[in-house]
Amino acid sequence: MTRSDARESALTAAVRAALHAPSVFNTQPWQWHLDGDAAELYLDSDRRLEVVDPLGRLMTVSCGVALHHARMALAAEGQGVLVERRPADGPPTLVARLHMLLDHEPTDDERAMYAAIPCRRTDRRPYSDDPVPGAVAAGLVAAARREGAVLHILRPDQVPAFAVAVARAGDLEMVDPEYRGELIRWTNRPPWSNDGVPPTTAVRPALRAIPPREFSLGVERGMHPGSGTDRGALFAILTVGRDDETGWIHGGEALSAVLLTATAKGLATAPISDVIEVGVTREAVRRLLGTARHPYAAIRFGYGAPATDLPAVPRRPAHEVIASVDDGRAR
Ligand SMILES: Cc1cc2nc3c(=O)[nH]c(=O)nc-3n(C[C@H](O)[C@H](O)[C@H](O)COP(=O)(O)O)c2cc1C
Q1: Is 62 in the pocket of ligand 1 (CB under 6 A)?
Q2: Which of 5, 35, 127, 136 has the largest count of CB atoms under 10 Å?
């Protein structure tokens, strides 16, 4: 295999690894175009959640997560890559262009994040009483900072106000019939669509500080909550300096870095975004943090039951989301 063939196959493998990325409502709002040893990542705007995400913030964050997954796969395989975010010569849907560079010496963190990609799952069950050690929490903060975001870990005295904001966001969304329609659409997908949030991943009610988002309107929630109470859980908010497409892409990369770092350390994770989707509660979160920065995601971390107990969540097949110049489907 020539050096250029090796780069091409590393790129294809990295883009396939990125298909595991988490996304809002599991919309998987991305399209990849491969051209030799370069790749382009596009937003699939048809998959934007019109009610939940009118600006496309969470759609763009989700693509940023996929971009970071691909970057970690390449880095761990020793492939250097140059990433242009929102290149000026591309359409507004072009998130990033990746160009392969010379070899790269992977760091331990990059290897660990890459290895965590297939193990990471959103676990909505309550976590155990075991606290997250300070050094592990510091590693999560550092992972976000390396990607240009700040992870604000909530102090125990801030959690009740955060819980109020999350509950308020849930109530405000749920009274909107258009929201309920969108939720029902994305939680009752036909099996061939390979997207959406299956009700099997929703958790039955349990006593806990912050109940997870309601994902099972009128259908049986699949999962038993187990014995956890979330007493040891950490709640954290990610913020970026700019509330625009570039900020959201970097934000998604930081969300990926934090989730994969946590998974590598044996933590369970669950993103929370309803509190961000509703303007008044996003503002309440910002005031709680006392920052001028922009919150774009919240996350719960903790020690959970084994992730292997979690039901499968679908992913769209590679041929639907990856087009290549070789097969005549990419520009
Ligand atoms: C930007 C973003 C926002 C999300 N918001 C929520 C949320 O509010 N509540 C929730 O339970 N899961 C949320 N998730 C998790 C997705 O539902 C989950 O990633 C998707 O269903 C795929 O499942 P998996 O993470 O187990 O692979 C979010 C994920 C992302 C990337």
Answers
A1: yes
A2: 127
Closest residue CA from atom 2 of ligand 1? 24
148 and 253 belong to one structural domain:
yes
Ligand 1 centroid distance, CA of 23 (Å): 5
Q: Give, for all 331 residues of the chain, the pLDDT tens digit.
A: 777 787 888 899 999 999 999 999 999 999 999 998 899 999 999 999 999 999 999 999 999 999 999 999 999 999 999 999 999 999 999 999 999 988 899 999 999 999 999 999 999 999 999 999 999 999 999 999 999 999 999 999 999 999 999 999 999 999 999 999 999 999 999 999 999 999 889 898 888 989 889 887 877 777 888 888 899 999 999 999 999 999 999 999 999 999 999 999 999 999 999 999 999 999 999 999 999 999 999 999 999 888 878 988 999 999 999 998 777 666 5
pTM of the shown model: 0.97
What residue type is 277 in one-letter code?
A: E
Parallel, antiparallel, or unpaired: how do β-strands 30-35 and 322-324 relate? parallel
Residues 303 and 322 in one domain: no
Q: What are the φ/ψ torsions at residue 100 (nearest 5 degrees)?
A: -75, 140
CA of 312 to the centre of ligand 1 (A): 14
Are 245 and 115 contained in the same domain? Answer: no
169 and 111 in one domain?
A: no
Q: Is 21 in the pocket of ligand 1 (CB under 6 A)?
A: no
Q: How far is the CA of 326 from the centre of ligand 1 (A)?
A: 33
Per DSSP, the chain holds a count of helices (H) and strands (E) of 10, 9
Instruction: List the residue whose alpha carbon is closest to atom 7 of ligand 1.
Output: 272
Q: Which domain covers residue 322, as residue numbers?
A: 3-119+316-327
Q: What span, in angstroms and rounded, lies between the C-alpha atoms of 312 and 199?
A: 11
Count CB neighbours of 38 within 10 A.
17
